From TrEMBL:
Domain annotation Ketoreductase: ranges: 8-191
Matches recorded under InterPro entries: KR_dom, NAD(P)-bd_dom_sf, Sc_DH/Rdtase_CS, SDR_fam
UniProt source species: Actinomadura vinacea
Domain of life: Bacteria
PANTHER family per the UniProt record, alphabetical: 3-OXOACYL-[ACYL-CARRIER-PROTEIN] REDUCTASE, CHLOROPLASTIC, SHORT-CHAIN DEHYDROGENASES/REDUCTASES FAMILY MEMBER
Protein name: 3-oxoacyl-ACP reductase FabG
Length: 247
């Protein structure tokens, strides 16, 4: 343990499982206290217990599309641990469908959670961080936002939007000492990706020069880099964690 985040408090949305949980787990190992925001409070509570309970981790039910929920999530961090040093906007959903069959509701839901949700998390965290003249915001985009994926006009648009949002916010917040960066994961092994039809999985694997899917902790280490002082002179950047896919 190197304690890269000693004494810092991090909020992670979508923190109960998958990439979000892997990030929270690594942050705790590196000395941070974390607050997990998730729609599923039961799962978030269980995850917080796994991360050491009230001393190091708290859970809060959070719908990131609701500004009031995000306010309450950040307030939980401030009340429990006294600061907000890192914000990871990770919460996400998919509603995959070709453009011809996608409903307006499926489009709106994905844009709301990924894009508006990340905007809420970024602006609310930035408002607190700017007062302290320091902070790191890490937004989780996707390689889908770089190349566009069949059946994902909603998701690809939202994840491309996260990049534009992150860069604009980085410019606004740089002179306040707050850094904003984004990560674009590729095919990462999770409950969501493992539910994919075999054919789709094989097709994606064929596009990866490193010849394997990534693991959630391989995204977490990059999030740690961006959250910590190791990346102190980086803002507005997009780091791809893809095994070389679509380079």
């Amino acid at each position: 343990m190197t304690d890269l985040l000693a004494g810092r408090t991090a909020v992670v949305t979508g923190g109960a499982q998958g990439i979000g949980f892997a990030i929270a787990e690594l942050f705790v190992k590196e000395g941070a206290r974390v607050v997990l925001g998730d729609l599923n409070l039961e799962a978030a509570d269980a995850a917080a217990r796994e991360l050491g309970g009230a001393e190091t981790a708290r859970a809060a039910r959070c719908d990131v599309t609701s500004a009031a929920d995000v306010d309450a999530l950040i307030e939980t961090a401030l009340e429990a641990f006294g600061s907000l040093d890192v914000m990871v906007n990770n919460a996400g959903i998919t509603r995959d469908s070709t453009m011809r069959t996608m409903t307006e509701e499926q489009f709106d839901q994905v844009i709301d959670v990924h894009l508006k949700g990340t905007w809420n998390g970024t602006r609310k965290a930035a408002a607190v961080m700017r007062e302290h003249k320091r902070g790191a915001i890490v937004n989780i985009s996707s390689v889908s936002g770089k190349v566009g994926m069949v059946g994902q006009t909603n998701y690809s648009a939202a994840k491309a939007g996260v990049v534009g949002l992150s860069k604009a916010a980085a410019k606004e917040m740089a002179h306040h000492g707050v850094r904003v960066n984004a990560i674009q994961p590729g095919l990462i092994r999770s409950a969501m990706t493992e539910a994919m039809p075999r054919k789709a999985w094989d097709q994606k694997m064929a596009e990866i020069p490193m010849g394997r899917a990534g693991e959630p902790d391989e995204v977490a280490t990059v999030a740690l880099f961006l959250a910590s002082d190791l990346s102190s002179y980086m803002t507005g950047t997009v780091l791809e964690v893809t095994g070389g896919r679509f380079m």
